Amino acid sequence: MTTYGGVFDLPSKEESLKRITIQSENPDLWQDPTNAQQTMRRLASLKEEVEYWQSIRQKAADALELALLEDETLRQELEKETTFLEKEIAKEEFFAMFTGRFDSGNALLAIHAGAGGTDSQDWAEMLMRMYLRWAETNHFETEILDTSLGEEAGIKSTTIAVDGKYAYGYLHPEKGVHRLVRLSPFDAAHRRHTSFALVEVLPQVEDDQSIEINPNDLRIDTYRSAGAGGQNVQKNDTAVRLTHIPTGIVVTCQNERSQMQNRENAMRVLRARLLEIKQQEQETEMAHLRGEFQKVEWGSQIRSYVLHPYQMVKDHRTGYESGNTQAVLDGEINGFIQAFLQSKIGENGSQDISAPEEI
């Protein structure tokens, strides 16, 4: 059991670890601090991965020895080891679906209320709660970088940093327009309303060398943080608004009490948005070359959440649906994520892979 092939090719990873370890010991490495930091992060990640697979290899060898003994008194221990190995391999097979450049890294999640006033702003807040609950259940760390409250209820927008391995890989299928149909709690006649909210998912790219921001291209404004209805909630100008003049991108952050922290968070979001523009330009160019380009409009929702006249959440891209709307709104969305990832694998003719029991 010396090679696993593909992503499980342990000997290849061990060779990479040796090579990067030698690079890290070069005394000239830190002459380029940015490159040095990337090398050390890569070293730590690869070391963790190699040690994990070495432990799996050892457990598999131990299980094989137990099986060869054919001792009934050891049967329970053998079954326990076998079950553990099956779960670990299934988990790694699932992670193998994350083949994108940024899939293994952290994510920025942004939610924007659509047209529809208070109903849409309330829907945006419901989505915010759903994703926070999902992150908590699946052991991701979250930090709310900025939130713009609605005048009466809900939120106009929010930006959340989601940190943890494969955060972007898991969340990027959620990107798109989410539609809610329900009896409006804000309508005196209690009529049925349809609300929309846009979910954006961006990779965090603090050290991506392809994204360069010229300080001369930035306009930085500071102001007092505002609460619901626009009232000031801070006595000092701690909130920060960054305007990237060449692109017109505007980023605000006001959740921290420190102006410096808000500025750092705003820069994180700006880098992510600039990277998204760069990726979209590359994808559009490739699509034009292939003759496959088509414009995606606001109305092309990816998922509908119907609470009246019946209860159903359905993903329009995969057909996956759930009748337990409350569970979905409480963060149980892994089924939708898994269905989307498997549909992308299916396009390439790959086999079906079940999601691990726990991320």
Structural features, described:
This protein is an alpha+beta fold. The chain contains 8 helices and 11 strands. The protein has helices at 10-24, 33-69, 75-95, 118-137, 167-171, 259-290, 325-329, 334-347; strands at 107-113, 141-149, 155-163, 176-183, 192-203, 218-223, 239-244, 249-253, 303-306, 312-315, 321-322. A hairpin with a 5-residue loop joins strand 10 (312-315) and strand 11 (321-322). The longest helix has 37 residues, at 33-69.
Layout of helices and strands, plus pairs?
Blueprint: H1 10-24, H2 33-69, H3 75-95, E1 107-113, H4 118-137, E2 141-149, E3 155-163, H5 167-171, E4 176-183, E5 192-203, E6 218-223, E7 239-244, E8 249-253, H6 259-290, E9 303-306, E10 312-315, E11 321-322, H7 325-329, H8 334-347
Output the keywords.
359 residues; Methane Monooxygenase Hydroxylase, Chain G, domain 1; Alpha-Beta Plaits; Double Stranded RNA Binding Domain; 3 domains; three-stranded antiparallel sheet
Largest sheet: 8 strands, mixed
SS class? alpha+beta
Q: Overall mean pLDDT score? A: 83
Count of domains:
3
Number of discrete helical segments: 8
What is shown here, in short?
The chain is α+β, with helices and mostly antiparallel strands and 359 residues long. It has 3 domains: 6-95, Methane Monooxygenase Hydroxylase, Chain G, domain 1; 107-203 and 316-347, Alpha-Beta Plaits; 215-290, Double Stranded RNA Binding Domain, CATH 3.30.160.20.
